[in-house]
Amino acid sequence: MKKLMLTGIFLLLGIFAISAEDLPSITIVNNTGYAMYLIFISPSDDDYWGDELLGDEILENGQSFNYELPYPLSQVNTYDMFLIDEDEDFYLKWRVRVSNNARIVFTFDDIDYEYGY
Fold first, then answer.
1. Strand 90-97 relative to strand 78-85: parallel, antiparallel, unpaired?
2. Which end of the chain has fewer CB atoms < 10 Å from its terminal CB, N or C?
3. What CATH number should be reported for the domain holding residue 87?
4. Which tens digits make up the pLDDT trace of 45-80?
5. What average pLDDT does the segment 90-96 reach?
């Protein structure tokens, strides 16, 4: 019984250690020349973009947005990202390899005319 209890405790501690692993933060910098109204970030191997991140905020040109990624780098370190500006233009970055405290700068060169509304 004691061995079983100890095994259970070690399993719980292992789960806690994984869940307590620090989640990386990134900073999205808007240097596009336009205000951004929507931001989406998802793991590159995911088919779903997930929730929009800005909410009611507007990311003006020259401003930055900090975001804590949902997975530890040991699980996911490559993300796809897109921003949508006031004219509904899409700015995309595919397969961005991130590190903790990474700065991802979007410029006008990241505009993608294939996508949009």
1. antiparallel
2. N
3. 2.60.40.2890
4. 999 998 999 999 999 999 999 999 999 999 999 999
5. 96
